[in-house]
Amino acid sequence: MHLTTGPIDAASLLLEARPSDGGICLFVGVVRNNNEGRQATAIEYEAYAEMAEAEIERLLSSLRERWPQARVKIVHRLGHLEIGEASVAVVATAPHRPDAFAACRQAIDRLKATVPIWKREFYADGTTDWVDPTRAP
Amino acid sequence: MIVRVRYFASFRDHVGKDEDRLPLAEGTRVGQLWEDLARRVPHFAAFRAMPPAAVNCDYAEAARILRDGDEVAFLPPVAGG
């Protein structure tokens, strides 16, 4: 299971390293208080849960093929999040740092592009909107 | 045959429900189902191209032929992370 409704304990992900690992790369995405010039107060995440789990599995499988030495774990939170709370954590461990950095970067970039998760932003003026990264600024 | 169509995020808001169970002719393709929906849902009619689609929880092309019992979803722009 890669989706959770409870808080993400990023520190616990650091325990994923094996004795043969020389590097741990941890990325934590947090809720920001602004987007496209608007002041945000909270975000609500929603997923097509069955597909998101499957898509993350496919993503992890492709990472294992490309970086066989690395091991990657992904946790994404759903539901209502306040500013500063962690929405996603990716940890990549590997014998050497280049693989850890590369696998971690690829994991979060592909997650944002393909995993069916959406966010509704709540703004200071009382309005809300679905975030659309494809929309021209 | 019957397929289950699921709506998420902004698409659910526009359709006004989570899902439909739609009777379709045998051999209907994903792209044809989208065109059917675009005729009925004003928000979808504004799309110049079919959004990303999934069949049974995996991305699928417009040419994919649907089968009885398939679960289909057209996906608004994803925004995880």
Outline the structure in words:
The complex is a heterodimer of chains A (about 140) and B (about 80). Chain A is an alpha+beta fold. Chain A has 3 helices and 9 strands, in the order βαβββαβββαββ. In chain A, a hairpin with a 2-residue loop joins strand 3 and strand 4. The longest helix of chain A has 18 residues. The model of chain A has no long low-confidence stretch (mean pLDDT about 95). Chain B has about 80 residues and is of the alpha+beta class. Chain B is about 25% helix and about 25% strand. Chain B has 3 helices and 5 strands, in the order E-H-E-H-H-E-E-E. Chain B has a 5-stranded mixed sheet with strand order 2-1-5-3-4, with no helix packed on it. The termini of chain B are far apart. The relative contact order of chain B is 0.29. At the A-B interface, strand 4, helix 2, helix 3 and strand 8 of A face helix 1 of B.
CATH C-level name of chain B: Alpha Beta
Structural class computed from helices and strand pairing of chain B: alpha+beta
State which percent range the strand residues of chain A make up: 35-45%
What value does the average pLDDT of chain A take? 96
For this structure, the CATH topology of chain A is Aldehyde Oxidoreductase, domain 3
- Model regions low in confidence, pLDDT < 50 over at least 5 residues of chain B: none
Trace the largest sheet of chain B across and list its strands: 2-1-5-3-4
Q: Indicate the low-confidence ranges of chain A by residue numbers.
A: none
Overall pLDDT metric of chain B: 97
The most extensive interface, with participating residues per chain, is: A-B, 31 and 17 residues
Distance between the termini of chain B: 37 Å
The SSE order of chain A reads: EHEEEHEEEHEE
Structural class of chain A: alpha+beta
Q: What is the tally of helical segments of chain B?
A: 3
Q: What level of helicity do the residues of chain B show?
A: 25-40%
Number of domains of chain A: 1
